[in-house]
Amino acid sequence: MILKNKTYFFFGIISIFIVTFFCAILIDPLGMGIIPYFLFSVYFSYSLGLLIGAIITKNFHTLINFTINSLRYFVGVLFIFSGLIKLNDPIGFSFKLEEYFGPTVFNIDFLIPFVLPMAIFIVIVEVILGVFLIIGYKKNLTIWSLLLMIVFFTFLTWYSAYFNKVTDCGCFGDAIKLTPWESFTKDVVLLIMITFLYFKKNIIKPLLKPPIEKYVIVFSLISCVLITYRVLNHLPILDFRAYKIGDNIIENMRVPEDAPKDIYEYEWLFSEGDETKKYITNGEYPNAKGDFLGVETKLIQKGYEPSIYDFSIEVNGNNLTDEILSEDKLLIYISYNLEKFSPKAIENMKLSAEKAINNGFKIIGLTASSIEDRNVFIKTNSLSFEFYTCDETALKTVVRSNPGAIVLKAGKVVDKKHYKDFSDLNFD
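Above: the chain's sequence. Below: its structure in token form.
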């Protein structure tokens, strides 16, 4: 269509140059380079040219088609992106589901043993529905499924935001962090878009012929299964956390001296005669007369928060985090729960520990399990190193494997491995 209409074509070409120049020259502090912006500009220019051309020619049928199909591609791509990000780290998403099912949120503990298969199923469905929508396959089933899914997620994010239960919904894994209210807003926008698609689903036409669309679906499904198998038996393909290879844990925990602090608002109550008066300050004691009744604090501006804020190594009640992490050569075996320690990992751990010792590495273990449990574990498996205490949530964040291992040199992560890959740990 765009090539058959000079109006559409003209505005399309103009917008390519404008958008590419604006993004690549004026916004490229993001460091993406010109190619990603150019590819975006091609699609954007097509859409813009179609929109302007439809308005000028008063072809409102084309305008409606443009709107619905733009929503279709946007929603489809967003669901695929969101699904793939979580598919990259299904264990992390399962931890988030476990948090929702736990006693502090919905208190449905009987579902916790099934969080991992549920997480895998949800993210694969998310990806496949996105593919379905883009290619226009079984549009009634697809849009109804998307509608039900987004209604459910909208409720979850509203609940998290309103009751301040879960600080991060995990919509985009660790790649993009959203506050509860940002997550809720995002889901409301998606709900509106999918509702539009529902009422105008007759406009959605298949992009591919029947034999080809089935090949695309099968390819998408097989790809999801292969990715799942890969990340469950090793580690996430992309690591977005502050413990990834190349990061320095010590530096990621450090708070700069000039970093902005949390700003609180203090609401003071005083009894002055027959009246109760309220004074609001930023922390200083108010110049008030009468009897002090109480004070409430309210966070009005969040200060600087380091990318790592909950990681610590405790030995006999003493915090030795900096001292231990500063070791020139350090191998840490991590198991957030020794009762869930994979028995298959014992032999791999012993062999890699021997190799590490031969290369001059200090070895420790980190766990959230009790002292009694770790002593039994060490004795039962005849281990030559000690397990120290660390927060369970922090350990789950460090490595998505129980056990897992990280190799540090003066706090810098030089390697990280799933227990199946302990033999490949780099000690050079």
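The longest helix spans residues 60-87.
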